[in-house]
Amino acid sequence: MSLDDSQDKLREECGVVGVIGSENAAYYTYLSLYALQHRGQEACGIVSLGVNGSPESKRFYTRRAHGLVDEVFNEARLAELEGVSALGHVRYSTHGEKRESNIQPFSFSGSLGHVAIAHNGNLTNAGSIRKSLEEDGSVFRSTVDSEIFIHLLAKNQRRRMEESIQIVMDKVEGAYSLAILTQDALYAVRDPHGFRPLVLGKKTEKDANGNSKDVWFVVSESCALDLLGAEYVREVEPGEIVRIIPGKEPVSTFAREKKPHKFCSFEPIYFSRPDSKHFGLSMYETRKKIGRVLAKESPSQIDVVIAVPDSGVPIAMGYGEQMQKPVEIGLVRNHYIGRTFIQPTQDKREFRVRLKLNAVTSVLAGKSVAVIDDSIVRGTTSVKIIRMLRDAGAKQVHMRIGSPPITHSCFYGVDTPDRENLMASKHSIQQMCEHLGADSLAFLSQDGLMRALGEKAGGSEETGRFCMACFNGKYPTDVQVNT
Length: 483
Ligand code: SF4
Hints:
Blueprint: H1 5-8, E1 11-12, E2 14-20, H2 25-35, E3 43-52, E4 54-66, H3 69-72, H4 75-79, E5 85-91, E6 106-110, E7 113-120, H5 126-135, H6 147-155, H7 161-171, E8 177-182, E9 186-190, E10 199-206, E11 212-219, H8 223-228, E12 231-235, E13 240-244, E14 251-254, E15 263-264, H9 266-271, E16 277-278, E17 281-282, H10 283-297, E18 304-307, H11 313-323, E19 327-328, E20 331-333, H12 348-356, E21 357-359, H13 361-364, E22 368-373, H14 380-391, E23 396-401, E24 414-415, H15 423-426, H16 429-436, E25 440-443, H17 446-452, E26 466-467, H18 469-472
Parallel strand pairs: 15-26, 18-19, 18-22, 22-23, 23-25
Antiparallel strand pairs: 1-24, 2-5, 2-11, 3-4, 3-5, 6-7, 7-8, 8-9, 9-13, 10-11, 10-12, 13-14, 16-17, 20-21
Helix pairs in contact: 10-11, 10-17
């Protein structure tokens, strides 16, 4: 992640977790949320399903609040979350107001029995579905898309939960990776395009009698499984509904309508942790490949390659490898900023950048430098970085970006500014270069990105497996907004 993230980065909006089959379900969920904290820092929650007096009677135990995982949970709060199954969610969102009732997982006990849900993504037809549900008498507790699933499930109950989910999948459009918890089972559901990742894992532990049993996990990214000491089993397929019941092998059902795969190309560029793997790719290796392709497309006359930390680092390594130039740490990030007090007399924006990043003069002085970042959103941060590098003595600064120019907003679960605030939607690359004050500026091409993502040579955006809509405006679904 780069500096001034709150203003000048695209932001993933959620991470989800589901656990079933262990008395430690809430604790495993908590650890997983830690590993997924990069997917949302505004709020988090855990809902567990435990017994309520007699073993036949169950109830949800819930803790949801604004704040980071280590601010919201502690040992005592986790101990209250009883049960052998749990869901977790981390959230950053612009869809829906910042209020308690919007924090997930959502849990309901009613005609459906006990059902809880955690959702990553955004629906592109949420407005019309919500309107018709409300006209039909549904009362919403929150202002976020995710609650729509619960109301649709309640209105379309069938004998088997999978059938109800299939009907809901017929109705909703857009991005959804879901973990759903019922009285008996954990379900993992991924939309037919597969925009957001969703991964299955398991680990074996002993029950109270010393017998082995499998604990199953559904997580947004595999890095959470590593922290749990769990085995990576596989990705949930686009359009797949996986039912997991303790003591049995998972059972798969699929959405009735098949749709072209459209994995979010920004997950490998920036959102996902580099130690995760999904979409059939290692995020780390893909970022290095992006760097190599970028160097082939846009080499530069340089002495040294540096990254904008942290997300630019693997891309810079690939760029330097291809250019056969040293990769150095030219910018150091302070990870411990918090809410530092800044005197009113200081230029706050400029000073905030200096708080977060500092240039290493010995690496930069008198050198021609390639500085690598993953993306440019508003460009406000890049201007300051380039000025900082020049102040540290860099002779020339060539900026290289590991994504194509971002020209369109995302409607699939990523917070993007309005189009007019995306620098590349209004300016040519030459104009951007002049504004940033770089000696040269180059972006990865769309074709280069597809190659780095392992797409076949000569493939088109239409046939490719990746969504590229924020680079070309070709949205894989109808979007009910002006683009
Ligand atoms: S529009 Fe961009 S950020 Fe959104 S899903 Fe597509 S590639 Fe990802």
